[in-house]
């Protein structure tokens, strides 16, 4: 069975714990980062952990991915999301990669602060992969050895300021405002036999109780093994680093079809972006102050359950 880990604050101390049926068993030792915990413990040790327990309600949960870890993201990685993003899934064969600032990582139940200058604030539920080991060179990752590279999974919400990301072509800036990267509430550690679940997890996101996104990781275009194989030829990774695997269809963003984009390419920049912003202004799906976003990821049999993220949108003071 998978191990559910939490990082929490209790009596002015930050600790790690194993979560079982709403109670936390503290993990002995001090682990300053997610990577240090992963490298300093084993699943067997954590499963066998005994001792005094804490009620979940008695602690403040923190992000199980610490801010010293890399935050790497995949874009347009579900076919229907490609289409709603104005891409032709039969023509795009590359893995779109970008990063978010580590400073946007917050706890799963944090308020989402909407910056004053942002008009079009969007949501993106994603499955996050947490790495098991350091990668410093090109590796061949397959379904057979995936467990050697992935320690576990978390919920990520890749909140995005579309009026900055799209017209300015600034993925990093549009997606990196503080609070734009809630992670958790739990880190679910996986063993080799659990890796099959990565292809059958159900993602669900609601806004004020209304379902906006619902899909399965079975529909990922570039899966974890292929993505890690590719990225290992580009950059180094450390244990505990986070890779967000992309979001399904259902975002607030509305982008013109490829045909309309080809026509828009002949328009002056000012006219083209005026039209884009006018279209977005008519989209009621964008988040506003007071909205509550809930995100969950679980397997159909309940073996993998990453909990529920809950973020209330708050206008920046």
Overview of the structural elements:
This protein has 8 helices and 20 strands. By secondary structure, it is α+β, with helices and mostly antiparallel strands. Strand 1 and strand 2 (13-20) form a beta hairpin. The longest helix has 13 residues, at 269-281. The mean pLDDT is 94.
Radius of gyration: 20 Å
Quick one: how many beta strands? 20
Mean pLDDT: 94
Shape summary: globular
Question: What fraction of residues sit in β-strands?
Answer: 25-35%
Task: Looking at this protein, list some descriptive labels.
317 residues; alpha+beta; 5-stranded mixed beta sheet; globular
Summarize the structure.
The chain is an alpha+beta fold and 317 residues long. The protein has 8 helices and 20 strands.
Helices, strands, pairings?
Blueprint: E1 3-10, E2 13-20, E3 23-26, H1 34-40, H2 43-47, E4 54-55, E5 60-62, E6 71-75, H3 79-84, E7 96-99, E8 105-106, E9 112-114, E10 121-122, E11 125-131, E12 150-157, E13 160-161, H4 162-165, H5 171-175, E14 181-182, E15 187-189, E16 201-207, E17 210-216, H6 224-232, E18 242-244, H7 258-264, H8 269-281, E19 292-299, E20 305-315
Parallel strand pairs: 6-18, 8-14, 9-20
Antiparallel strand pairs: 1-2, 1-5, 1-15, 2-3, 3-4, 6-7, 10-13, 11-12, 11-18, 12-15, 16-17, 16-19, 19-20
């Amino acid at each position: 069975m998978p191990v559910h880990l939490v990082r929490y604050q209790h009596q002015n101390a930050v600790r790690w714990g194993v979560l079982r049926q709403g109670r936390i068993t503290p993990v002995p030792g001090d682990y300053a980062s997610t990577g240090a915990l992963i490298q300093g413990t084993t699943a067997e040790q954590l499963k066998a952990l005994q001792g005094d327990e804490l009620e979940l309600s008695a602690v403040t949960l923190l992000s199980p991915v610490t801010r010293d870890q890399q935050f790497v993201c995949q874009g347009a990685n579900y076919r229907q999301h490609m289409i709603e993003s104005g891409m032709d899934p039969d023509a795009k064969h590359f893995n779109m990669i970008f990063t978010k600032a580590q400073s946007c990582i917050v706890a799963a139940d944090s308020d989402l602060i909407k910056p004053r200058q942002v008009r079009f604030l969007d949501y993106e539920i994603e499955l996050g992969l947490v790495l098991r080991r350091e990668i410093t060179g090109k590796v061949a990752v397959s379904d057979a050895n995936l467990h050697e590279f992935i320690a576990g999974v978390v919920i990520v919400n890749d909140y995005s300021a579309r009026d900055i990301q799209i017209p300015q072509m600034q993925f990093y800036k549009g997606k990196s405002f503080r609070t734009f990267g809630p992670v958790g509430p739990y880190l679910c550690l996986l063993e080799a036999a659990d890796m099959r679940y990565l292809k059958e997890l159900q993602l669900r996101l609601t806004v004020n109780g209304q379902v906006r996104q619902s899909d399965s990781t079975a529909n990922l275009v570039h899966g974890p093994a292929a993505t890690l194989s590719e990225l290992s030829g580009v950059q180094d990774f450390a244990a505990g680093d986070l890779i967000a695997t992309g979001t399904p269809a259902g975002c607030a963003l509305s982008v013109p079809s490829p045909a309309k984009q080809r026509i828009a390419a002949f328009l002056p920049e000012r006219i083209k972006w005026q039209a884009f912003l006018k279209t977005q202004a008519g989209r009621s799906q964008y988040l506003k102050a007071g909205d509550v976003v809930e995100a969950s990821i679980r397997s159909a049999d309940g073996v993998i359950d990453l909990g529920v993220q809950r973020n209330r949108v708050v206008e920046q003071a």
